[in-house]
Each structure stands twice: as C-alpha cells, then as structure tokens.
Amino acid sequence: MTNFVRHLHGVAVRLPVKTDQHGGFPIRGDTLQLVNSAIGRIQSTLPSTAVIEAHRLDFASFPIFGFSLTSGKVSQSALWELATYELKPRLNRLPGVASVLVQGGQIPEFHVVPDSARMLRAHVSVQDILDAVNKTNLVDSPGLLSRNHQLFLGLITAQAQNPEQIGDIVVKTTNDVPVRIRDIGTVTPAAAPAFTVVTANGKPAVLISLNRQPDSNTVQVADEVRQEIEGLRSTIPAGVNLDVFYDQSNIVRASIFSVRDAIIIGLLLAGVVIWLFLRDWGTAIMTGLVVPVTIVVTFIAMKIVGQSFNMMTLGGLAAAVGLVIDDKIVVVENIVLHRDGGEGPLRATASALKELTIPLIGSTLTPIVVFLPLITITGVTGTFFRALAIAMSVALLTSLVLALVWTSNLGTFLIRRGKKADASGSQEEEDENPPELQHAAAMAESREEAAHIAEMRRMMAAEERSLRGGWFEHILVFYARWLRRALEHPVWLGGLCAILIVVSYFSYNALGSDLLPALDEGGFILDYVTPPGSSLQETNRLISHIEQIVRSVPEVESTSRRTGLQLGLAAVTEANTGDIAVKLKDKRSRGIDEIIAEVRGKVTSAEPAVDVDFHQVLEDMIGDLTGAPQPVVIKLYSDDVDALKQWAPRVADTIGGIYINQKKPVVDVADGIEATTSGPAVVFTVDPVRAAKAGFTTDQLTTVAAAIVDGEPATTPVVINDRPYTVRVRYPKTSRSSLEAMRNTLLVNSNSGTTTLGAVADISELPGQIEIIRDNLQRDVEVTARLEGLDLGTGVAAVQKAVSDLKLPPSIRVEYGGTYKEQQKSFRDLVTVLLLALVLIFVVLLFEFGSYTAPIAILSSAVLSTSGVFFALLITHTTFNVSSFMGLIMVIGIVAKNGILLLDANQKFRSVGFSAEEALIQAGRRRLRPIVMTAMAAVAGMLPLSLAIGSGSQMLQPLAIAVIGGILISMVLSLIITPAMQFFMTRRSQPVAEA
Fold it and tell me: I want to staple 66 with a disulfide (CB 3.0 to 4.6 A). Which of 50, 246, 515, 805 is the partner?
C-alpha cells in the first residue's frame, strides 16, 4: 500500500473555554473524547487510507527543544538509527517530556527487487512475494507444553535475520521444486523512499525535537534534556556532531532573569526614594525587608492556587514592587510623624494604625478589584495577564497584612526619629495651628473630643516642624497656594480638564496599535513555498541557495532546514514546502526586525519564485493557538470558485503595492491560491475489460503500480538485534525512470498472465488542484500578509482602504481575520474590564466613604490620569497593545489609592469643624508627602521594566511605560482635581460629624 500526501487538510475547532493555569488554550478533558467519538462514527464512511487524528492544542503542542545530528563519516541511515533507537528512548523517559520527534536521515530497510523475466518463468506475482514474506517471516505460539514437571511456551518461527535468509523464503513450489525469493529477484539493504530534505547548517542532518507535557515546566524540562544530552555525548560515535538549534527555555529563562533584576533594581530605587523623603535609613531598610517577605508569601499563595512561576507571574511581582511598598510607606510615614510629635514607639505605632487601618484596606482593595474582571477574559489577553493579575493581587493583599502587622512591629525597633514634646513645643502648637482648630478645641463638649482635637493639633505642629527649612517645605507652600487657586477658580480647573481630554484624544489617535508588544526571541522561522508541483530536487536547489543567503548574515549562528516537513503538529507537507529555523547570536548590534528585513530583501530578490514568510517561534505559536497565524488575513467568501481565483491574486497584488512613508510595509503576501495549489497528478485509468482479459484485477494492478513507484511493504518486518526493518518489494529504478518506462514495465500474475500498465490502463495528467478551505462551512480563500516597520492598526487600516477601493463584486464577501481580529476581540474584552473595574472601584469607595461625592471625585482624577498614559506611550513611540491597555487599567486602581488617603484625611478635618475649603487644603498638606512618596516609589519600581533590559522583557515594557505616565500625572490630579471636585460637590454642606 502506498500513502499519497496531497496537502494536509485540517479542521480547527474553536471552543469558548477559559485558558488553563499553564497558559494554554485547552479543551475540556471530556471534549477531546467527544471529538474522537465523533471521528470514530464517521471513520467507516471515509477511504481506508484516510487517517484522522485529534490533538489538544496548547503551548505544549509545539517543540520546546531541538538538536541536530550531522556527520561527514557516519551514514544518514546510521544517524537515523542512532536517533531513533538510542537517543529517543532515553529522552522519552525523562519526566516532563511528552514526545520526541525524529526528522531527516534515511530509514533503513530491505528491498526485494523483482526481475520480470524470472517472475514470468516461475509464474510468480508481486502479491505472491508479499504473501510469502508475511506468512513466513513471523513468530507464533501454538500453546503451552507440560514436560518433566515444567511448563514450556511453544513457539513456531521462521523469522529472517539477514538478507540471505529473506532470499531463502519460499514463494511457491513448482513440481516439488521450491521457488525462493532469490530465484526471482535480489534482496539488498536500502533506505525507505523519502521526499524530504533535512539539513543543519547546510549539511544533511537528523533533527530531534521534543515536546513537553502540558503540566510541566519548560525550563525544568529543558534543563533535564540538556543534562541527558551531555551524558549521551560519550555514547555517540566519533565523527557525529550534536548541536542545539532551538531551546525555548532560553527566552523563558532570560525573561525571568530580566524580571528578577527589575525587581531588585526597583526595590533599591524605591528604598532610595524613601530615604530622600524621610532621611532615615531605618525606615528605608524596614520597607526593603518587607518586600522579600511579600514575594515569598506570594510564591506560596500562587503555588496553592496552581500558578507556575513564569514571565508573567514574575512580571506581576516586578510591576507590584512599587505598589506593595505603598502601604508600608504610608504606615512608616505616619509612624514617623507621630514619633516627631513626641509619642513613644508603641504609642506612635498604635496611633498610626488606628488612623490608617480603614483607608489602607480601602486603598488596597481598589487596585485588586480592577483585576477581578480579568477572570472572565479568554484568549491571548486572559492567558498572559490573568497570571499577572493573580500575582499582583496576592502581593497587594500580602503587603496590606504585613504593613499592618509586621511593619508596625519593626517600626518600634528601626525608627529612631522623634523627640518628646516640651512646653515650648506646646506654645508653638498654639501659634501654628489654624484658627479653626483652636476654635474647635475651645468649643469641645467632651473629653474624648478634646483629646482628639489635641491629637490633631500636635500632629499638625509636628508636621510643620519636620518640614520647616527643608526642600519639601517649598513644595508644600507651592502646592497649598495652587490648590487654593483651583478651589477659587473652577473655570480654570475645567479648562485644565478639557485640555487633558483633548491631549488624550490626539495622543490616542497618534498612537499605533498592536496585539502584543514586539519580542526579540533570538531567532526566527522562514517558511517557504516553491511553485506548485516543484520536484524535491528543484525545491532543494532553490532552498539551498536561500539557506546560503541566510547563513551569510553575520548575526546568524546556526540554521536547521526542513523540506517536505515542518515544525508543529502537521509534521508532513508536500515536497515544495518547508521551513528554515534560524538561531541568532546572543551578542549582536541589530534587532531581530532589522535582520529579518535584510534577509527578506535578499531572498525575495535572489529567488522571486519562492514565496517566503518570516515569523518568530513564540509569535507563530500564539498565532496558531488563537487561530490567527498571520497579522493580516483577508477572507474572501464566495461559492463562485472562478471569482475567488480571479480576485484573490488581485487583492494580494493591491495590498502588496501599498506605500506608506515611501516604503512598502505589507510583506510576505500570499494570495491564498498558489500556496494552496497541489502539484499535477498522473492518473492510470484502468480498463476493466482489458484488465480482465489479461487476468488482472484493479486491486492487483494497484499493488503492482505501488511496487513500481514507491514499493509495496510487507506487513511483517525483519527483526535484527531487536530492531525492526521493513521488507519492501520494489521494482528497479529503470522501471520508474519515466512514464514511458512505467507504461512498458512487464507485469506478471500467478497464472502466468502478463501485461503492461499501458496495455490495461490509459495514462493522463491532471493539473494541480486548489485546496478547498471552508470557514464555518463557507468556501473561502484567505489572502495573508505581514507588516514590516508598521503597527497593526495603521497597516490594517491601509489594507482595508485598498481593498475597499478595488470594488469587489457583490458575490464576494470580505472579512478581516488574523491577529487583527484577535486584537479587536482583546480590546473589546479589555474595555469591558475597564468599565467593570470603574464600577467595582465606585462600589468600594461608596462603602468606604458612605457618600457619592467621594467616589465621583476620586474616579474623575483617575480617568483623567489616562491622559498621562497616552502621552507617555506617544513620546516613547510605544504602540497601544494589550500590555499598555493593562497598564491603563492598573493606573485607574493606583490613582484611586491616593484619592482615598486624601479624602479620608479631609473627613477627619471636617469632623472637627474645618470649613470645606480649609479641610481640603489641610488634608492635601497632610497627605502630600505620603502621596508623592508612594507615587515616586511606584515609578522607581516600574522604571527597570520600562527600560526593557534583557530578553523577553519587551512584553511588560508597554505596561510599565503606561503606568509610569499615569502615575506621574496622577500626582498632580490626585492632589488638585480630587479635592477640587470634592469641594465643589460638598462646599454647601455642614461639617460632618465624626463617626
């Protein structure tokens, strides 16, 4: 039997399920069984040669590690046996390894080469040879034998052990004379027919790729594989080179290291910020000690909820470094203030906690509730940022507990500031306190109220003394003056808000948009398709030249090439397709996009007949998992096949000719026709009458034709040294050297009947056929492309305009898919998350303050702070993608934290009789220092991420830039807009009674 591969066909099933804890896009455990059950029901209706397999598609479906075997001394057959029988079993048994794929080399087997003339004399057919091998070369058991008090297993065998014994197999007996295989042909060692070419660094090679199990850790599995490979090197024959061509753990490990460094650097910078404001090393050290404890507790909590430690979870911790110390900063600053007010360590701690516990709980819950809606998000956004949200939420909750418990206890030992108040100090308090506070003290009706007012007088005086003469006093005076002006001139304030809204609008429109940030994985894949029907030899010639071009680039370290094969689940393709995996050097001056652009230009210029497509491995992996492997996918739906064949190339030519800034940014264009067109076919149409007269059935002719072309394998292999080798009946090369030779090859049956293929069948050629693609049962053709030096939003907008100008006929319906469609879905989901986050924050603030004015005031400045996000992205030339969108959502929660602290202080001042204006001014003065400290600490914590130092760090860079921009402008908005909005909504109300 011969298996013909004519473009692999597949059915992609998209299920609306959530991603799992391992970052994949899984289907439920019972869903795969249901799919297999459905396949089983229809299997009987399909041709017997049709093979259908169902696979779970997640990140574990793609190789995480690959290495090559090359040699100038050892044959390709020996390399294949080395990889299959020695290396593969040892790697397969490693924990975490799901499968090992061997590609390339030559599969050794034994060929029986029949001689038509000798077959005619012996009255032997090809089927007789196959039957003889299948019925002779076997081992079986007749049963169990009992003899001499022992039980023996009976065995009957005639297994062949070498070519000579295969030749001794008796095909038939004529006149008591046995006719052996060697009498009608020859038996020779050979290799299985192959229509693939595999190379490594331009040399013939065997490639070994490994897939991990879904619940395993990529870095751990890769480390185990590397360790096993080092142990295998001593067993590999001399002259065999083993080189790693792909290791996904490198990008993962580098990303984790860069995030780890960002955590350490951010922590140090945040400590410096604390020291600059409080000028006390004890407070900086104390805050710094809390962060490692927070991270350890977060790790434990993440382990309990089933989260792994990856780039996104660690990235969440890096992004949270500046936020987790917010609570500590506020507590420490308040303890310091009470110590400066003359209180002892224990009393200062107790007073600070009493004052801050409720607002701290509220301010911690606001950024956490921002992440709650992410639970409902699926797809790329959910995969990447759910882990980040969980890590940050756990870290913030942990930091709150530590701030209220551990930090306060450490403060009694590490905070050395504070002097006891004296009589002169009391007199200073009288002089420095505002008239409202002095009047409230005089009008106090109870001892508790008087004590509370006295406490406030002492704290305000202590704050004035601590800031007097320092650089922060000037900032405080400047802030109070401008806050008072803002309260007195609402029109100016409204103008400022309008300006911010306009800046946000124009900055957003000027931004480009993408799905994910651009990554530099240290390598890329070059997919190629030569003209339909290209032979393996012609394809190999073209791709060998392309391989030389790629290897001539200075930054290229190594290459591995597959022709007729590819990475991923569909390992086999036609002979005119394949891919080249390119590994770049670690130390290089150019980015991966620049290198790909150079290679693309050289390849398309040197080999214009070859369609190429460049992408990075993880990028393509994400695309496959989301069903959107290309950034630009134009889907043309129509039942009119001729219209699709006519218009698809025109659409491809049109978008390929788009000019933006004197450049053609739309590259790797495929029209959906040529790449899905199979090669021509040769059809042998059997005439049943002529065949019957010659004594042949169609089934017999099929078997003989297979023996001429690729050979017909026997069902039972020859086992030598516990290794199975296929026995294949195959006519000599001269019989298949041309169609004329195949037409004239003499065929023999068991009854001495003879004929030729040309005598019983008509031979014709069919042109290549277009692959039928259906999307939701609708016939379509997909025109695909990538973008070079242009963001996704701008590129697709230009493509949509160009396609619209073509005026496609009404019979063709156009839709846009690919990465663009996934981006639009992700953005819609994140808009929903943003709206839900605003609602949840409003609810938390409503419970916190018991009125609608405070939530409105706080959310007003939070929403306006997004102007800083857009402006920061614009000046850093960062696109608006799901990462920066997440940063925008985080800013809303972070800004709300500051508003809670300020309005909580406002409530306290109002409770003792301050007017609406004076209460807000005093609250702003009181909370200015902690708000600025927490904002600067958050910026310091995000700064290393925003610089994208290290491989893989680009994923979180837009998030960090967005958060930094939002926080910087929020320092002004939280301290101006929030109190102003509160003032305008409450200035006619009476002072509130203290709860």
Answer: 246
Q: How confident is the model at residue 22 (pLDDT cuts 50, 70, 90)?
A: very low
CA pair distance 382, 374, nearest whole angstrom: 7
pLDDT, position 29 = 52
Contact between 56 and 27 under an 8 Å Cβ cutoff? The reply is yes
**Tens digit of pLDDT for each residue in 784-806?**
899 988 899 999 999 999 999 99
74-86: pLDDT as tens digits? 999 999 999 999 9
pLDDT in the model for residue 984: 85
Q: Give which of 293, 305, 515 is closest to 391, Cα–Cα.
A: 305
- CA neighbor of 780 nearest in space, from 803, 814, 808: 814
Q: Distances from the Cα of 621 to the Cαs of 11, 216, 574, 625, 711, in angstroms?
A: 17, 18, 21, 6, 37
The span from the CA of 402 to the CA of 385, in Å, is: 25
pLDDT above 70 covers what percent of the chain?
82
| pLDDT, position 431 | 47
Q: What is the dihedral of CA 977, 904, 994, 921, to 10 degrees?
A: -50
**Rounded Cα–Cα distance for residues 895 and 887 (Å):** 12
Q: Any bridge partners for residue 602, and if so which?
A: none
Question: Tokens in use for 582?
Answer: 């390119």
Read off the pLDDT of residues 205-262 as tens digits, 9 standing for 90 and up: 999 999 888 778 888 899 999 999 988 888 888 889 999 888 888 877 777 777 677 7
Other CB atoms within a 10 A radius of the CB of residue 875 amount to 11
The whole-angstrom separation of Cα 590 and Cα 412 is: 53
Which residues are bridge partners to 864 per DSSP? Answer: none
Q: Which of 624, 620, 554 has its CA nearest to residue 587?
A: 554
With a CB cutoff of 8 Å and minimum separation 6, the contacts of 881 are: 513, 514, 515, 516, 517, 823, 958
**Residue 686 · residue 760 · CB < 8 Å:** yes
Q: Which residue has the tokens 């896009």?
A: 25
Q: CA-to-CA distance for 641 and 662, rounded, in angstroms?
A: 36
Q: How far is CA 74 from the centre of its chain?
A: 39
Contact predicate 108/725, CB 8 Å = yes
User: Closest Cα to residue 120, out of 754, 548, 850?
Assistant: 754
Calpha distance 958→966 (Å, rounded): 12
Chain segment 800-840, per-residue pLDDT in tens = 999 999 989 999 999 998 888 888 888 888 888 889 888 88
Residues 576 and 529 sit within 8 Å (Cβ to Cβ) = yes
The backbone torsions φ and ψ at residue 882, rounded to the nearest 5 degrees and listed phi first, read -65, -30
3-state helix, strand, coil in the chain (%, to 5): 55, 15, 25
**Contacts for 423 with CB less than 8 Å, ≥ 6 apart:** none
What's the burial of 725, exposed, middle or buried (CB within 10 Å: 0-12/13-18/19+)? buried
Sign of CA dihedral 913, 919, 925, 928: positive
Of 607, 589, 532, 620, nearest to 819 by C-alpha is 620
Nearest to 985 by CA among 843, 839, 856: 856
How far is 285 from 415, CA to CA, in rounded Å? 10
For the whole model, what pTM was predicted?
Answer: 0.79
Distances in Å between the Cα of 420 and the Cα atoms of 277, 347, 414, 430, 662 are 22, 12, 18, 17, 73
Say how far apart CA 255 and CA 492 lie, in whole Å: 47
**Euclidean distance between CA atoms 331 and 351, whole angstroms:** 10
Q: What is the pLDDT of residues 867-909, one digit of tens each?
A: 999 999 999 999 999 889 988 988 888 888 878 878 887 887 7
- On whether the CB atoms of residues 380 and 516 are closer than 8 A, the answer is yes
CB 887 within 8 A of CB 966: yes
List beta partners, residue 189: 110
CB atoms near residue 35 (< 10 Å): 18
> Beta strand pairing status for 761-766 and 556-563?
unpaired
Summary mean pLDDT of the chain: 80
* Positive or negative: CA dihedral 287, 288, 293, 294: positive
For helices 882-911 and 853-864, give the axis angle rounded to 10 degrees: 140
